[in-house]
Amino acid sequence: MTVRPAALPPIPFTGIRPRLRRRESVLIALVAIALVAGDISLSATHEIAAGGPPTLGIADPGGLAIYLAVLLGVHLAQVLAGRRTDQVLLPAVGMLGGIGLLLMERLPQDLVTQTIGGRTFGLAEIQLAWLVLALVIIGTLAIVVRSDSWLRLYKYTWAVAGIGLLILTVLFGVEVNGVRLSLRLGPITGQPSELLKVILVVFLAGYLSENRSLLIEQDTRIGPLRLPPLPYLAPMLAMWAVALLVVIVQQDLGAALLFFLVFLLLVYIATGRRSTLVIGLLLFVVGGLLLYATIAHVRTRVDIWLDPFSDPAGAGYQVIQALHAFARGGLVGTGLGAGLPVVSGRLPIPEIQTDFPFAALGEELGLAGILAILGLYLVVIERGLRIAAAAADDFRALLAAGLSLVVGVQAFIIAAGNLKLIPLTGITLPFISYGGSSLLANALVVGLLLAISDRGVESPPPPRPARRSPRRLFGRPGRGSSGGAAAGRAP
Amino acid sequence: MTAVGRGTARRPISANVAQVGAALVVAFGVIAAGAGYWQLVRSADLSSSPDDPAVIAAARDTPRGLIEDRHGTVLASNKKDADGEPYRVYKDKSMSPVIGYASRYYGTAGLERAYNAQLSGIARSDPLAEALRKFQATPYDPQNLTLSISLPLQKAALAGLGSDRGAVVMLDPRTGQVLALASNPTFDASAIADPATAQEAWTAVNADPAQPLLPRATLGTYVPGSVLKIVTAMGGLDSGALTAATKFPQQPAAEKNGLVVSGFTIKDGHHPFTDGTVLDLPDATEVSCNIYYALAGLKEGGGALDSMARRLGFYAPLPFDLPTATSQLTNGGGPLPGGFLDDVELANAAYGQGETLVTPLQMALVASTVANGGLLMKPQLVTAISGRSGTTTIASQSMGQVLSAADDAVVKQAMMQAVEGKYGRLFTTGAAVPGIPTAGKSGTAQLGGTGEPHSWFIGFAPVDHPQIAIAVLVEHGGRGGSRASPLAGQLMKLFFDTEATS
Amino acid sequence: MDPTLISLWILRILFLVLIYLFLFAVARVLIRDLRSASRERSVELGRLIVVASPSAEPAVGSVFSLDAVTTIGRDVNNAIVVDDQFASAAHCELTFRGRAWFIEDLASTNGTLWNGQPVTGTIPLGYGDEIQLGGTRFRLERGRSR
């Protein structure tokens, strides 16, 4: 019989007790200054390109003002709520989102349009709307979520909901290039695979924290071999099969890779068993070879990765253009708005706002900018993993670790794909890529991380002795009572 | 949760988290390294490559730099089309294999491609100007190219080839500057560059079985025939295996009955005048005796022959403003020094048959080296690059003293006899420039099967202090003396009539 | 040299510099966090020492470092596992609230004893007090700095 470890009591709602979040306010101020400087630089470049003298104006002041206002608003809301949550996550995410917003403002606005009620919205406006919604979600989760039982206790419900969502997409989704990856609700289209990754982490955190000891200590014996136990191997194989299916049916290599990697790493974190990594690697190699041999589009992706110049005008075009963009950037880039030369009225890289924002930023901000962005992602990961390490119990630790991994591994996959370090996949760069579903899912991640990071009421001062120390039998110097002579007494 | 006391099996989650965190940091470090590679290491070559969209965009909007010949005649210029966008116009189609084309739809070729960055203005000749480019209002400064080519010579060379396929290379042996680099058939580059006629011209030119887009002077490889004997002579003299007085006693008999090399008989029947005479080096060159040279090649050995050829530029693309094919003496892989399969192959290669393949430019360099006292000058097409920021002159460069001056004098003497000598004149009809001592060598490249042999001539003039070196190849032109030699003589005469400075 | 372009260049570099300024500020926070975390860890909340035990699990004399919430019982998922036939799967819970320690019996079959008295509900503990589950007895001690 498995006994659930006692769930931590929910953090009590002690009413609005504002607490200054000094570090966060300083960081948010720095974010605001940096983004304003970037916006001024962008507008100056636009003015020079149009032929006039540059003035110290701001491109799209309304958009940036709204963004910074909402960011500040979330900060103030947290100040008012007075929970001792992490102070670095929100500014880091704010900086990433801001850089993404500047990029969307810099790109031609007609790349994506949405018409609602007669008014047409362009790329930056849509992205701004989603960013605002994302920030609101982060703030709400950080303030309101105080217990994790709704996640921990209903993990199977969440799992079923996730699978249901996946099936819905496969059956009723919007078809693009022969695959169904999105669902449409009225004017809004979303990619459920983004939400699925959060559900996966919630389910895994619950399952692994419950069965942690079982998974660590027991073994399945097959003859002389000691293998990990069945409740351990079975989910691994199931997850591997699901990943393969996602690749085959949905042709979504990126999502499959993300799910599989996050799953592996989370199991490793929970159990510490090296066999996780060995078996995982084995399954990956076998699965990869199988897919390469049988699925055409996997073969294309891998061949193009190995030698994009074998098809420079067709499949390899995107990657080659991305590498050229990085090369044009050099050390400090061409400057926001000054790169991405237009040939025949088109941008050099197709799908630049979703698949290749990393390359676009590489060209315009240079290696310095790229390293800074990588640094920002590492900051988010570090905070998330620190929250995991300091978490009060296994479930929260695994949940926090899994959520950080979701952001970090996703950023890794798409950045490496842009740089031809691994084959290109179609997943988004968290907080920077255009896309509502991506922003909202990552907002859920960050909001939950903030909620978990609450350190509760201030830790009390070191405990004072309840009674005076007993007489020292052996005249040993030292402080307080130590083991030995003291006997229990009534308080 | 920390758990002290439940044994070592349960490692705390925080420890595993730290490990995974470290792994992620390493992974991101790899990404940073990858970004550094593409953004620093490969930045220069990718961003100035002709396929880079920035380069293409600049090319479309900015008028490209002009290309002029050595006399200042404009060979490539720009016109504006109906939308005001510039496109390229070329003066004469004899220059097409050299200049290539710059087309809005079909990219670039030839010098337009090799110097695309300069002509479109992305790259500058001056590194300081390049660094300051960011601070200037118009970032693009298209550069003009001045070529060493002389348009009249180039046109005459093309006209001389007539309806025969082939190539002509003329260069100044003292500096390496190329005065003519003609290939036939050629094509109309203006038709490809003009957006109105581009598609038609492009399809036509690509469908033509004569391959007009192939610049034969630099990228065509041909069996050299007897012109390669000069290389054999140089190799033998340099290694000491041959001297001017070297004779082979078995040579006269072998001319009659054939030379047996490792069981294979080499026959040579094209100089009946000398039966009975044992020839020395200059005489053998004058009558182009295959037997003599086969024996000479065997005497000097594959190693010496290979070494001299490599010094002249064989087995590697030549350092040149345009892409070049590599010349070879053999396909290689054989056990003998130099990669020859056996003595038979070595003997055949020594007189320019076997698996030898050369480009006309390479043979012109051979002639140029002999002309220049054994000092090989790097072939040069572009002599100056000029723009808003000033002019950069490209100095001539030497590729090394290939042969000592004393040995070179022997070869010069031999080649002079081949053109001016009593018998030599019969082999190189028309190559001698009237009134100017000329030296050279003809070649009849047997193609072992159907078709006439290739007609070759390489030479230089005047013999003392040469000013011009030439190589002429006429595909299937017959004997060396029938097409290549008279054309070479005609072109050298034109040079002396119009261009010679001293 | 065009002054407007120079100022433009300065603006572009400024943007990058400001992003790095942000990263440095974050780095300072991270380092400070690391230092205080290592300092925190050196202060233990409390410890339980095994005074008597009928089985080898836990061994007599072994010391358990306590967190804010520590569960004790026979099930392997507890923080302190007691292999005692009279102990229930989830037997009792030791918590540190505010400034003092509390013990709560989790409806165990045989009950928990505090200094020999049965525990009902949640009662406060002092240092030196002993609690007993089945045949296993622990003593609560003050935490040590490590």
Structure explained in plain terms:
- The complex is a heterotrimer of chains A (491), B (502) and C (146).
- By secondary structure, chain A is mainly α.
- Chain A has a domain of 326 residues.
- Helices cover 60% and strands 5% of the residues of chain A.
- A three-stranded antiparallel beta sheet of chain A has the order 3-4-5, with helices on one face. Chain A has a two-stranded antiparallel ribbon with strand order 1-2.
- The longest helix of chain A has 33 residues.
- Chain A is globular and about 75 Å long.
- Chain A starts with 21 loop residues before the first helix and ends in a 39-residue tail after the last helix.
- Chain B is of the alpha+beta class and 502 residues long.
- Chain B is globular.
- Chain B has a domain of 261 residues: DD-peptidase/beta-lactamase superfamily (Beta-lactamase), CATH 3.40.710.10.
- Chain B is built from 20 helices and 17 strands.
- Chain C is α+β, with helices and mostly antiparallel strands.
- Chains in contact: A-B, A-C, B-C.
- Chains A and C meet through helix 1, helix 3, helix 8 and helix 14 of A and helix 1, strand 3 and strand 11 of C.
Keywords:
heterotrimer, B: 502 residues, alpha+beta, Beta-lactamase, six-stranded mixed β-sheet, 16% strand, globular, disordered N terminus, C: 146 residues, six-stranded antiparallel β-sheet, five-stranded mixed β-sheet, 1 helix
